[in-house]
Specification:
The chain has about 190 residues and is mainly alpha-helical. It has a domain at about 45-170. It has helices at about 30-35, 50-55, 75-80, 100-105, 115-135, 145-160, and strands at about 55-60, 65. Strands 1-2 form a two-stranded antiparallel sheet. Helix 5 (about 115-135) crosses helix 6 (about 145-160). The longest helix has 20 residues, at about 115-135. The chain is flat. InterPro entries: Phomopsin_biosynth_assoc (IPR053008).
Length: about 190
């Protein structure tokens, strides 16, 4: 949506091309607004050994390898300290625990639980905010992804319909009317 005109604009896809010329597009769409300030997207790979050769870091919160300058150690530490849901298992029945984040990254697929997915979304939103508020130079392609942001929002909204709980539409909640400002991104941000 163009805030100046109120009209919807087409969102072009951003395709990442690896050094070998193959596509690394995960299908995530990046809006022009979300990528306007990105001058360069560092190349990535689709192979663990190549990622490690390039000294990329595995981010267990975002579930992927990133160039080191995009790995958010603070966010990863927060994720690990949040609880035990981040631990991975080699099988769907959770009988074989994976003992390190490095091993999780080398597996290709591993299993956690639904709470882990909720925590993943919530903490990536925190990361997204810190990137915005602190005006990070390097932003990973997951938090810059419009599609991933919408996936998390939709997942959490749909989850309220799927759980065995009272119908949340019938539970009253007080809403305090607030007043908020509007940041001018051309001016330095100060929280």
């Amino acid at each position: 949506m163009n805030p100046a005109t109120g009209t919807l604009e087409a969102m072009p896809s951003l395709q990442v091309v690896n050094a070998n010329g193959s596509s690394a597009d995960k299908g995530w769409k990046f809006s022009r607004a979300s990528t306007r300030r990105l001058s360069k997207l560092s190349p990535i790979t689709t192979h663990t050994l190549e990622a490690e050769r390039r000294r990329c870091g595995y981010d267990i919160l975002a579930n992927g390898y990133f160039p080191k300058m995009c790995v958010d150690e603070y966010g990863i530490d927060e994720y690990k300290s949040e609880g035990t849901t981040w631990y991975g298992y080699a099988d769907r029945n959770w009988t074989v625990r994976i003992h390190s984040a490095e091993e999780m990254g080398r597996r290709g697929i591993y299993y956690t639980n639904m709470r882990d997915h909720i925590v993943h979304c919530a903490l990536l939103w925190k990361r997204q905010y810190r990137a915005f508020a602190e005006n990070w130079r390097f932003i990973d392609s997951v938090i810059a992804s419009e599609e991933h942001t919408y996936h998390c929002a939709d997942y959490l909204m749909e989850l309220t319909d799927d759980l065995d709980h009272p119908d949340w539409r019938t539970v009253p909640i007080a809403v305090n009317v607030g007043y908020a400002g509007c940041f001018d991104r051309q001016e330095p941000f100060s929280p």
